[in-house]
Amino acid sequence: MGGNNYFHFKQFTIIQERSAMKVGIDGVLLGAWAGVSNTGTILDVGTGTGLIALMLAQRSDAQVTAVEIEKSAYEEACFNVSGSPWANRVQVEHNSFQEFALCTGEKFDLIVSNPPFFENSFRAPERKRSEARHNDLLPFDELITGCLKILSESGRLAIILPKEQGDKFIELAQHHGLYTSRLTRVRPLLKKPHHRYLVEFERCKTTTVYNELSIGLESHFDYTKEYIELTKEFYMKF
Fold first, then answer.
1. Pseudo-torsion of CA 172, 132, 97, 39, nearest 10°?
2. Angstrom distance (rounded) from CA 77 to CA 122
3. Distance CA 43, CA 108 (A)
4. What's the CA gap between 37 and 46, in Å, rounded?
């Protein structure tokens, strides 16, 4: 997915010539899965091409803010937003999340992030892609504490992470006072182990709702009914 310099969805197009991270299943999953009920304001942290911000604009009537630190990705996100049906509701900020959280006076009902997650591991040779994949610029604890500062009292944080990093993030979030309210374990195929977590957090302790999602049945192009149902408002192929 996302090998071309553009990706057509049913209601918008993503140009991805310059952004280090292209359209991928993780972003689509989070954009389709995050709960948008009772949201007047939404923040997308590390928006990249603007994909998730535009998916959430399509699914809601909220005002959406998207933050991106890398200049080329920021400019591409601005272009994608300007060509979308929701240009009047989506604003892209060129800033680090840490600086944005420190300076903004706004509170958000939903914060979403497909965050960088590699720690002390092999670096991609291309600098921008390496920065997009490694969390040196946005460590988990700084993402969590920043979110706590700007989440509304009943606000939610929704993320997607690989299983191992997801376990670490859940433990760290709980330590800071954000508690898991919803967790979907994702597997690529029915007979494969879980490889991703979709997690939603709230300030108050609540009973966590657990479920599972398989993307494919026996092959990567043989999609499950659940995955089709989740993403059918976006993908042209469904």
1. -80
2. 27
3. 7
4. 22
How far, in Å, CA of 96 to CA of 45, rounded?
9
CATH superfamily of 6-231: Vaccinia Virus protein VP39 (3.40.50.150)
Angle between the N-to-C axes of helices 163-176 and 140-150, in degrees from 0 to 180, rounded to the nearest 10: 50
Q: Dump the DSSP string for the chain.
A: ---SSEEEBSS-EEE-SS-SS---HHHHHHHHHS--TT-SEEEEES-TTSHHHHHHHHH-S-EEEEEE-SHHHHHHHHHHHHTSTTTTTEEEEES-HHHHHHH----EEEEEE----B-SSPPPSSHHHHHHHBTTSS-HHHHHHHHHHHEEEEEEEEEEEEHHHHHHHHHHHHHHT-EEEEEEEEEEETTSPP-EEEEEEESS--PPEEEEEEEESSSTTSB-HHHHHHHTTTBTT-
**Residue 24 C-alpha from the chain's centroid:** 11
pTM beyond 0.85, yes or no: yes
Domain locations along the chain: 6-231
Q: How far is CA 7 from CA 1, 23, 52, 59, 143, in A?
A: 9, 7, 13, 19, 28
pLDDT tens readout for residues 154-212: 999 999 999 999 999 999 999 999 999 999 999 999 999 999 999 999 999 999 999 99
Number of neighbouring beta carbons within 10 Å of residue 204? 10
Q: By C-alpha distance, which of 207, 118, 107 is closest to 157?
A: 107
